[in-house]
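Lab notes, practical 5.
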Amino acid sequence: MEKIKTLRIMKPASRGRKNCLLLILLLFCLVHPSIAWPAGHVNVITVNEIINPAISDYITKIVDKSVKEGANSLIIQLDTPGGLDLSMRDIIKSIMNARIPVIVYVAPGGARAASAGVMITMSADVAAMAPGTNIGAAHPVAMGGGKMDETMMEKVENDAVAYAKSIAAKKGRNEEWAEEAVRKSVSITATEALELKVIDLVARDLQELLEKVDGRTVEKEGQKFTVLTRGAEVRNLEMGLRQRILNALSNPNIAYILLMVGLAGLYFEFSSPGAILPGVIGAISLILAFFALQTLPINYAGILLLILGIILFIAEIKITSYGLLSVGGVVSLTLGSLMLFESPAPYFRVSLRVVLPTVFLTSAFFLIIVGLAIRAHRSQPATGQEGMVGLVGVAKSSLGPSGGKVFLHGEYWNAVSDEAIREGDEVQVLEVKNLRMKVRRVS
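Output from the prediction step:
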């Protein structure tokens, strides 16, 4: 009984010692810097394209996905020459209203955040750049091949300045530089951007970025978020198949080729009904081209010139122009191709390396088709009554205006002649009408 009582007395003391040890261990883990607690996961995406509707859809959906699955933060590794204003604004709205910290990292070395990329970088909760990168040149440009007048250009510029300054003010960044980036198209290096407080930090690579942003606190819509990246799982999220297709179609070179293939296919189908395959390929190509054109700044004069070029090729078949219509078609195709995406931004123009071969192949295709059609019209029929004209037979009776018999191709034909022809003379068919030949003596 005494031993039992002793055990009962010692048990509470043993529990107390265990609790003390656990408390000491917990405090040690919290204080010691080498202890890293699990920090969930961080999503990372890479954007190295122009800012277009496909990229906007990709980023906004990744932001929503990151919020829903509870990611600690989202890192956007950016390298872009710029892009469309509406797509840029959709991305910025998604970043600024996301309920998680969003980090924009201009990387790797040699990358840039130009034009729309400037606004996207400044809108981030944490803006970072890698050494050897640059940011700037955010002056708005006219799209669609038209030139804005001075008043309209001033309105667009002032709107862009106000937007840039509001983003910079919201994120506590350099408003004066944001205005200069729009008005004067200034561009600065990563080191200069850090000194001017355009960005928050410079990191050599993604690993260093994760270390430097860990523990930062960002405030969004009155709510504070802590960036936890130490020990977090890094998940790289790729663009989906649908978004890749849309992004490829938004390339001016791809859209241009699809448009030319579509026009050629429909022309072939209309000129040779029943071929089916060219018509199907042409219709699909045109639909894809029209989808791409709605996401690009197009010049309608360019489209009209392309259509005019094909009309001139078709007219060459019906009208004898001795090649003038074909020359006009080639010139029209060339000018239309160059004007189709007329824009100051090089990433919205068709490359000459694509235009010249495409115009050459398309022109050669139409010229060959036109040549074959003209040859078919001019060639002598080989079948039917028309195919008998010009053939040589033998008179089987005397021939004259009153008629007679001719032996031709193993058949006897009724024939007449304007001259007297003796039996056994060779005769040549001049015409066939109502199964009656008109012939002449072969001299």
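Observations recorded by the TA: Confidence is low (pLDDT under 50) at residues 1-12, 29-38. The longest helix spans residues 2-31.
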